[in-house]
Amino acid sequence: MEMARIGVTGLAVMGRNLARNLARHGHSVALHNRTSARTKALVEEFGGEGTFIPADTPEAFVAALERPRRLVIMVKAGGPTDAVIDEFAPLLDPGDMIVDGGNANFTDTRRREAALRERGIHFVGTGISGGEEGALHGPSIMPGGSAESYTALGPLLEDIAAKVDGTPCCTHVGPDGAGHFVKMVHNGIEYADMQLIAESYDLLRHAAGLAPAEIAEVFRTWNTGRLESYLIEITAEVLAHTDVATGRPFVDVVLDQAEQKGTGRWTVQTALDLGVPVSGIAEAVFARSVSGHAGLREAAQNLPGPARGPVAGSGLADAVEKALYASKIVAYAQGFHQIQAGSAEYGWDIDLGAMAAIWRGGCIIRARFLDRIRAAYQADPETPTLLTDAHFTEALGDAQDAWREVVGTAARLGIPVPGFSTALAYYDSLRADRLPAALTQAQRDYFGAHTYRRVDRDGSFHTLWGGDRTEVTG
Ligand code: NBP
């Protein structure tokens, strides 16, 4: 009987395209899906693309796999993933590998990895970005799990990953949940990037007075420069599109209420637990949340605001480009800070430059810019923040006047720019010689005797606020 090098269970859009990608690269693929109609449909439609071995039952599927077995799960994250693991794990032997390519929460991945490790099974939580098209033509792949499992899986995953300058957008991220953690932060950064692009559009529309088709041209131009990226490219496409039914700009017929669920929210929740200020990602998640509160927005429709009208001057688009680039540097610096903190907390030893390298292609945030980040970590792997890398410091310095102007203009016109504003506030907070946190600490000591530290000597202190205000050691 012919054996398969790898198997995929869960053949909805992602699993199906991943299986096809593997087959197109010459790997024989065993196929399984809870509802076997999907398995049949795949073989009928795409059977000619490579060697597929369809299986109707978990037993037949497992029996079709070469040893050690490589089994990829591509089902809905959460309960379904646990259900599939419970179904398949008893059929596996020590040394076999289960790859979870779904969008799992990294804490679930840590739990599953620990439980399966006890049985000698490698559980490889793997972040996969690039959506449906990426899964078929080359995604960015972020596998966690043991280094041993990567030896067996890496060559296959690198084969099907996107390539940039001949380098696969796939590398072993680190043990247990590291892969899903990095995928989570990737998605958080994606939220921030999209929010900054949305604010740029809003400013060009309502401050510069440009029409969507004109803004599409601005984005097309930006896409030939340092902002070149998939997200900028598709923004131009969307803005240039006209709604067939009404003849209006497509962006004007789409309901302006976004959802925030899953990975963006997890990124912020995890950042709070780790104590990492990812304000750019948080503002992006909150911006979607605000947009979705239709009743709240309706109730606030008549709140007073300034008159809105296009501002004079043709330099606004250039200023917005600078503000966007500077804010983007901040958002990415915050995301990488979170990966650094997660890596330290969980002992993952993640190579930050390698993460930037595997995001250069295949994934939603793919961009020329990521090569700069890779280079920054190559120059100084221990850098506490990307902002102090020479290239980024220069770009921020060059952008800062325009950045402040743009945030000021937005405030004057009543155009919300939470992403731009918070990025600038973060930048100014890090730069500040003194922060008003000193006053905060003093207040806390006043009402709660929480103590404070002093600038001029070690130790903690408390002032007897209710008494004679002498200072005692805390
Ligand atoms: P879905 O997330 O829509 O899941 C559908 C698949 O899960 C089907 O194969 C379905 O089987 C299976 N399934 C469910 Br639901 N419950 C099951 C259970 N209890 N036991 C066994 N199988 C079960 O598919 P998708 O959009 O292809 O995404 C797959 C994974 O990849 C998800 O975790 C997703 O978050 C992740 N992801 C998706 C994208 C994307 O762009 N779509 C990108 C990156 C990652 P059935 O056919 O029998 O109902």
Automatic annotation (TrEMBL):
Binding site for NADP(+): G10, L11, A12, V13, M14, G15, N33, R34, T35, V75, K76, A77, N103
Pathway info: Carbohydrate degradation; pentose phosphate pathway; D-ribulose 5-phosphate from D-glucose 6-phosphate (oxidative stage): step 3/3
UniProt domain 6-phosphogluconate dehydrogenase C-terminal: residue ranges: 179-466
Record EC number: 1.1.1.44
Enzyme class: oxidoreductase
InterPro entries: 6-PGluconate_DH-like_C_sf, 6PGD_dom2, 6PGDH_C, 6PGDH_Gnd/GntZ, 6PGDH_NADP-bd, 6PGdom_BS, NAD(P)-bd_dom_sf, Pgluconate_DH
Active site: K183, E190
One BP annotation, GO: pentose-phosphate shunt
Pfam families on file: 6PGD, NAD_binding_2
Catalytic reaction equation(s): 6-phospho-D-gluconate + NADP(+) = D-ribulose 5-phosphate + CO2 + NADPH
SUPFAM superfamilies given in the database record: 6-phosphogluconate dehydrogenase C-terminal domain-like (SSF48179), NAD(P)-binding Rossmann-fold domains (SSF51735)
Keywords: Gluconate utilization, NADP, Oxidoreductase, Pentose shunt
Entry binding sites for substrate: N103, S129, G130, G131, H186, N187, Y191, K261, R288, R444, H450
Function: Catalyzes the oxidative decarboxylation of 6-phosphogluconate to ribulose 5-phosphate and CO(2), with concomitant reduction of NADP to NADPH.
Family: Belongs to the 6-phosphogluconate dehydrogenase family.
Subunit field text: Homodimer.
Name of the protein in its database record: 6-phosphogluconate dehydrogenase, decarboxylating
Gene label: gndA
